[in-house]
Amino acid sequence: MTLQGRTALVTGASRGIGAAIARRLAADGATVAVNYSGSRSAAEALVAEIVGQGARAVALQADVSDPSACTTLVESTIAEFGRLDILVNNAGITRDGLLVRMSDDDWDAVIRTNLGGVFAMTRAAARPMMKARSGCIVNITSVVGMMGNAGQANYSAAKAGVIGLTKTTARELASRSVRCNAVAPGFIATDMTSKLSDEQRDAIATQIALGRLGSADDVASAVAFLCSDDASYVTGQILAVDGGMTFA
Ligand code: NAP
Q1: Exactly one of 12, 155, 187, 231 is catalytic; which is it?
Q2: N or C: more exposed end of the chain, with fewer CB within 10 A?
Q3: How far is the CA of 26 from the centre of ligand 1 (A)?
């Protein structure tokens, strides 16, 4: 129970990687705020599951692409549980397409959600964490933020932006003992990657040293480590959880 007594807020925790992170942080002893955008029943079912296992949790709706909703989300978490120790910026979307055909709307939606959301959530959480002189922020970026990916100009630009934002946040908040790191997943089996055909999946697996797609739990384990005191001397780092897809 490495996170006993801590309160965590996980964005986009109704499904996929975010849900696995919320489950894992609760299993490690944290009280968890489960943010969702549209999937209310999935978020409430996850909260019931966590509460059933003896931890505290609440589902909070907010669209992270709306900066004022981010401020309210942080305030609601603190109002509910009295503190905020851990922020995991996980919420993300894709609107894929080749860049010559990409619409302004698809560009804007992904940048606003995947990069703007991380900025607005971090800005809202930074003040209470700095005041408490402790805190931990983990951003979920992607290996495509480092490598690029055909068909994902918007997504890879947003994820690269999250890497720069992570390092800047780490530098600005370190003097108040607030750490900020990022996890960069490779290909993880979730709704986001479910549209891939078996053929595409097999082709991807050949690019991965460990020979398989990752699971949401693989990502959650890395996040749990970065949130724990075992990582108390780790800040400003980007940890790839990609089965050895990108190492040099
Ligand atoms: P997913 O299965 O599609 O789930 C996305 C989650 O984000 C859902 O809980 C969704 O909530 C939430 N969300 C979307 N837009 C939101 C918004 N505007 N405000 C609040 N929540 C919002 O995706 P995933 O695969 O778990 O991905 C999670 C994170 O990992 C994302 O940042 C993604 O970019 C990153 N990632 C994924 C992979 C992969 O292979 N899957 C690889 C690298 C990085 P609702 O259902 O309520 O809308």
Answers
A1: 155
A2: C
A3: 19
Pocket of ligand 1 (CB under 6 A): 11-18, 35-39, 63-65, 90-93, 113, 140, 142, 185, 187-188, 190-193
Confidence of residue 135 (pLDDT cuts 50, 70, 90): very high
What's the mean per-residue pLDDT of the chain?
Answer: 97
User: What's the CA-to-centroid distance between 154 and ligand 1, angstroms?
Assistant: 15
Tens-place pLDDT, residues 139-195: 999 999 999 999 999 999 999 999 999 999 999 999 999 999 999 999 999 999 988
pLDDT of 33 reads: 99
Residue nearest to atom 31 of ligand 1 (CA): 92
How far is residue 149's CA from residue 151's CA, in Å, rounded to a whole number?
6
What is the side-by-side strand order in the sheet with 7-10? 57-61, 31-36, 7-10, 86-89, 135-140, 178-185, 238-241
Based on the residue annotation, tell me whether 155 is a catalytic residue of this protein: yes
**What does the pLDDT read at residue 1?**
80
Between CA 116 and CA 120 the distance in angstroms is 6
Query: Which residues share a beta bridge with 88?
Result: 10, 138
Q: For 214-229, what is each residue's pLDDT tens digit?
A: 999 999 999 999 999 9
Sign of CA dihedral 6, 11, 12, 14: positive
Rounded Cα distance, 17 and 22, in Å: 9
- Phi-psi label, residue 208: left if phi above 0, alpha if psi -120 to 50, beta otherwise: beta
Distances from the Cα of 54 to the Cα of 20, 49, 141, angstroms? 17, 9, 31
Q: Which run of H or of E encompasses 110?
A: helix 104-110
Selection from 172, 160, 93 nearest residue 125 by Cα: 172
